[in-house]
Each structure stands twice: as structure tokens, then as C-alpha cells.
Amino acid sequence: MSDHTVRVLRPDEHRAAWDLFRAALHVQPGTDEEWERACAVHQDGRVLGVFGPELIGTTRSFDSEMVVHGGARLPLAGVTGVGVRAGRTRRGVLSALQAAQLADFAERGVALALLYASEGAIYGRYGYGVATLAKRVVVDRRRAELRPDVPAGGEVTVYGVDEAAPKWPELYSATAMGRVAAMTRSESYWPGYESQVRRRAKLLQTAVHRGPDGDDGYLTYYVEEDSHDHAKLQVMAFHYANPAAFAGLWRFLLSVDLVEEIVLPMRPLDEPHALLFTDPRMAKTESIDDESWLRLVDVPAALAARTYGPAEPVVIEVSDRSLPANDGRYLIGPDGASRTDAEPALRLSADTLAMLYFGTWRASALADTGRIEVLDPAAPEAADVLFGTRESVWCGTFF
Questions:
Q1: Of 21, 62, 123, 246, which is the active-site residue?
Q2: Which of 218, 246, 358, 399 is the catalytic position?
Q3: What are the respective helix, strand and coil percentages of the chain, to the nearest 5?
Q4: pLDDT-based confidence at 227, cuts 50/70/90?
Q5: Exposure string (b/e) for 170-181, b if CB count within 10 Å is 16 or more?
Q6: Is 123 a catalytic residue?
Q7: In this predicted structure, what is the pLDDT of residue 37?
Q8: Catalytic residue at 238?
């Protein structure tokens, strides 16, 4: 990599990086109008480029916070815009970008990093692991009937995109931050989101649910028809603060005419769609996929910030080839987590720790598949309880 240079890009270089990223996804360069919207999401000082000597690779991030077990919010970097120019792949360009980006995160005191992976075999080598899962749900609207005991819900008002877009930040903050792994959305996030959803549909609608205490749920959707005139209602966002709002928004969805199916991609695994209907088979889970990939940038801070279940303490030994400051042994128990010199019961790498951190994957399963080295046979079961979660963790913010 001696002939390559990695540096922070100037604002006047952001568009070139954006076009390079689009080309990596086999998308043509953006128009001036598209760039006018996209430039707002390029946070100054967070866009990196690799030169050799021309720009041959890029990545960027944006500042956020993420909810962990116990309710604490940790500084988070949302990683996106990762691309390498065609003909320059598999030459260490991505590795150079990742090394520089992770070093920057660590220097700035970022505890966690998160990304959505276009390919599943890439990011484990940089310490990222699948931290949340999501399901794709399809409901037969023509045949689905709500059970009589489903909460009635409140009033639902529908807005067009121009009227709804200014409301989205407040609606999201009021309805989406109650689940572990939820992340805040800064002011710079929303222009990119709006641009994305506008590209998806000519007629985008937002339905807002209002309960006794005000707006407490919303969903964003559009209707599309396939070549056989089969109409599907595609739900792009669905957030709610309580069961009444969840039920009320579903009553609304089932009331939309001229629709055969309701499609909800990337939903929490424990979201109880099927329990709403007299025939639970009306809600089919078509797939379960990885949602977000997590990276513990500051392992001591991340482990100390979350709460743990009631089990005997366990000492884990972490190895992190990208950020060796994280290497070491940590005592994990109901009272918290801290560094220790005690003998380890479990050994694992940074990417496996990321998979374990939110409890999406059990320590015993990770051990059974060779991802964790077991030195104390009782430790995996104890770690299952310590890191376990009662509710499925879910990020719910795609970027």
C-alpha cells in the first residue's frame, strides 16, 4: 500500500467520492439535482478517500447514537458509501480505508460503528459482526381479518410526502427509540432518506396514528403493480410507541383499497403480526436476513455501558487485530464489566464479540460453531444469560 494515500476528503471532493460509490454499485453518475440533495448527508471530516494517484476508493460515516441494554446511548458511527473503483479491487484499498476509518473512530472516542453489508463475506475481517436480524413479512390483505380483541387504536391521518417530510424527524424520535439497537437520526440523515424514498415511488404516503397523548405511531408506504396488475402495498417505515398504535396502523393498512398484498421488509423478529389475525397464516414470514453489522470500536466502554442478566460472572478474552488496544480480558457479570487479569473462560475475536454483544446470537451457539473457544465448560451457558435479551434487538434505520 506504499503507493496509495488515504486522507480525509475536502468538501469539493465529496461529489467525486459519491460518483465512485455509485459506480461501485453499477449506478450511473448522479445529476446536479440529485447531488444537491445528496451533498447534505456528506458530513464534513467524515469522508475518506484512497488515491493512487487518482481517487480509487472511498468510505464515509455520520455521527449518531445507539441504544444498548439498560437504556444508555453510546456514540455511534454509521458507515456507508463504501466503494472501490473497478480494476482496483482486491489490492488492499478497502483494507486501507477500513484501517484509517477505525483509527479515526477510536481517536474521536466513538464506541460503536454500524453498517449494512452489501456482501456477507467482507466485513468480518475488520471486526464487524451480524448484530441484528430482520424478517420480511407479507400479508394477504384481501383475506386477512383482525381478531375482535385487537385494540381499536386511535385516529389515523394520511399525508403526502411534501407535508409529511418535515414531520418525520419528530415522529421518529417519539416512536422509534424504545428498542435496543435503535439509533438516533441527526439532521443530516433526513435529506438522504427523503431522496431515497422519493426515488422509490411516485405517490408516497405517510399515515400518522394519534392516541390519547398525541402522535404515537406512523408508517410510510406506496403502492406498486407488477406486470399482472397485482397491487402490493410496500411499507418503507413503520414505527410505534405502544400496542394501540401498532394495532391502529394495521387497521389502516387493511383498509387501503385496490391492494392484494401488504409487504413489510426488514421487521423485528418478534413483531407479532400473525397474532393480530383470525387466521395467523395470513401473515407469512418469507425470509429472515441479517440487518445491521456492528463493530465495537471501544470494547471497554461498550461492555461497561450495557446491563447484563443474572448469572455467574464470566471472564472473556478478546483479540482485535485491527484495534489492539481492545485486546485483553474482561470480567462480565450482573454488576457490570471491567478489565481483569483473571484466567479467561471464553476466547473470542472482535467480530464474534459484536455478534454476542446484543444477545442476538447465544454464546453457546457461537461456541458450538467454533466461533468461541471454550476453556470453562460452564461459561457458555452463563454467557447466554448474561448477554441474553428478552426482546429482539432491531436497528430499523437503513442507510
A1: 123
A2: 399
A3: 30, 30, 35
A4: low
A5: ebbebbbbebbb
A6: yes
A7: 86
A8: no
